[in-house]
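Blinded run. Sample ID left blank on purpose so nobody reads anything into the name before looking at the predicted structure. Input follows.
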Amino acid sequence: MADAIRGRGAVLDTSVALAMFLPDEKEGGIAKTILRGKTYFIVPELINYEFRNSLWVAVARRRRIKFNQAQDILARFEKLPLIYKDVKLDKAFDLSCENGVAFYDAVFLWLAIKEKAELLTLDVKLKEIYAKCQ
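Blinded prediction complete.
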C-alpha cells in the first residue's frame, strides 16, 4: 500500500483517531482540522489495540456509545489510509524513560521521529517533546 499512496502523510496517534470518530469528543473539530490535507497516515500496529480498547471503555465502562456505534466506528476507522510501520521497541522505551511519557505514547513519538513525519496528537506534552526532538 505504501508504494501506491503518494502525497502528504503523518503519524496518527490514537487520541486524534478517537476524536475523529467519537460523537461526544470535544476535540472532534480540532482533530478534523489537524487531519486536513493528509492523504495517508503512518501508524504502529499498537494503534489497533489502543483504539479498540478505548472503544470498549466507551461502550462497557462509560456507556458513552452503544455497541452498534462502536462497530460502525471500527468499520470507518478501518477504511482510513493507514500504513503500518514497525517500531524499534527498545528505542521507544528509551524515549519514554528520557522524556517521562508513557511507553505507548513514545511508540508514536519514535515513529514520527524515524519517519521524519508530522506527529498528529492531541497530547500537548507529546507535541512539545516531538518539537524538541526535531
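Unblinding after everyone has recorded impressions. The first helix runs from residue 14 to 21.
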